[in-house]
User: Fold this.
Amino acid sequence: MSLLSILVLALGLALDSAAAAAAQGFVAPRLARGDALRLGLLFGSMHALMPLIGFLAGSALDTALLRRWDHWIAFLLLGALGAKALWEGLTQRGEKDVRPAFRLRLLLPLALATSIDALLVGVTLPWMGAPLLLSLTLIASTTFLMSVSAVHIGRHFGKSIGRGFEAIGGLALIAIGIKILAEHLIGGH
Assistant:
């Protein structure tokens, strides 16, 4: 597998994380120092860990079973997180918490949901003749860079439009979950 092919794979895997990161930036009342970097590190780390797990456990796992359920897991996690954000955005009155978009208990399931496809990619890396360390490094660094950038882009638009858009961020997460589900169901993955 060529370096260009690995980079294209890394970009494709990072898109869902970047969209989720943009949604987090969009709904944040403010962006504290280090929030985008912490999110990027978590998303990038998860995108390195999941293919590594897939690579190591690929022979022991029933990959057909995993492929049947991965999109449903991502859909349910993103849907639940999005529904929660939508509900809070529509029902919350008064002053919002300063950093709800960047709490670890919210970001961890989000990072997991957006990296499930990377687990399956890890299973297939040996079949494609991809060097493991280079693949993991490119996948993680691409996800990190795209996620950090997306937080700032999302924050810029959230700030310029105004506050109270947590519901829109929730809808964005639900849309990402639906996109993942539709791609797998329509594409036959």
Summary: Residues 94-99 have pLDDT under 50 and may be disordered.
